[in-house]
Amino acid sequence: MRKFTLLTILSAVCLTLTSCGGGSHEADSAGTSRTTLPTETTILPDITEITVTETTAAASTAKTSRSGKTTRTGADSGASTAASSAASAATTVSTARSIQTQGGGVTVPTASTRQSTQRTSASTHSTASTLSADPETTTAPITQKTTTQTVTQPPVIPHTIEERLAAMTLQEKAAQMMMGSAVSEADALAAAQNNVGAICLFAGAFSGKTAEEVREMTATLQAAAKTPLLLSVDEEGGTVNRVSLNWRLRGTPFRSPYAIFNEGGMNAVVSDVQEKASLLLSLGINVNLGPVCDVPLSSSNYIYSRSFGMDAALTSEYISAVIPEMSATHLGSVLKHFPGYGGSIDTHKYMAYDERSYDEFASRDLLPFAAGIAAGADAVMVSHNIVTCMDANAPASLSPEVHRVLREELGFTGVIMTDDLGMGAILQYSGGQDPAVAAVLAGNDIVTYANYGTSVPAIVSAVESGIISETQIDESVLRILAWKESLGLL
After folding, report:
1. How far apart are the first and last CA of the chain?
2. Active-site residue 337, yes or no?
3. Given Cys at both, which of 60, 241, 287, 390 links 232, Cβ 3.0 to 4.6 Å?
4. How far apart are CA 179 and CA 168, in angstroms?
5. pTM, entire model
6. CA angle 10, 13, 14 (to 5 degrees)
7. Catalytic: which of 187, 294, 391, 419?
8. If you ran DSSP here, which 8-state letter would residue 184 be given?
9. Does the annotation count 419 as an active-site position?
């Protein structure tokens, strides 16, 4: 027969509760301190180990009668009192054993369970005392066994973006600032597994896939990342699409917003944005890298086919109309390409120079950006052209002055990101360092670059050597996390 020292167990549990905060501790009106167990199941996150002590009695007791005969009780005979006592003890232990691992913590019995346990324990103690008081009853020696149970404490889950930031290593923070460019699903998965903060998916990642297959892909990417990802595409409509080029995802590619406007007005443009947002979100894509805010100087300019025409006021009206629609659906928006392409050539291959005055920029190119910021745009993408009125020596994406204009002159407080640093126009202006380091020094929060594998260590090294302050890194990551939170990702 096995008997448990229940009062010892319960006392130990109560002491553990008092020290670990499992119950409330207060003083009554007389000033006496008392501890109250919770009436609901309570998780004790600080307990790492509990010890349960069991006492095991001999299998039977021997009773010598006055006639000198020895009678075996317990296991061999129907000593009902002892058997009843053992059953009560077993029931009580079963109740007390409700102290068990649950969800990584410890489940504590409620106050009513504790009282029931004490009554059963008292009954068991009374029966045992009666047996011991019989001078003709000899009880076998009691042996004691100690069992130690280790309870695994669950990891602390951060709930605020500040807590998430505090839990990150410097390398993890640097990775959050990277947007990996992915021309295939394999590229995207590698980026996710390296814990980048964002991924830009190109058409190859969607080619030949059904909607369900795309959803499986984006779900796999999110599952592979330690922190939820910004999954983005360039679905501008017209000459630049990634998703709708696949007829399995949409019957025809999205049309140019400007062409839609010329046929159906701004209401038709808004309807197009709503359909686009619905499709992208249904596929697990949470950011569209648009709308385009550039105002070309002529129809022959590189950016013209992607723009909303040459009227800055009309472009501003378009931006003001579509940003709220994107925000309402929680699809991330990105104004591009600051401070404006104007008449610049394509910087994917060559460096472009814009020598117009600041007043001309302020009265024309900056207007759609200002309208988008006022409408609540999430992010701004900075171009690679050199705008001499702001900085004659560096591309806009690597220029601290251009970023100052965006922050201070236009009052933008959201996320600033670079255009793809893999463009030919940018590599010769990084001063011999990793272009991602130059981009962060300029003031970018997110660096779009396929070479995140070398850029993350470069940013970490720049912080450790004092080239970049960790305070700046923290500020950028907080903006990124705040954006993710606003999209419902955190």
Report:
1. 55
2. no
3. 287
4. 18
5. 0.70
6. 85
7. 419
8. S
9. yes
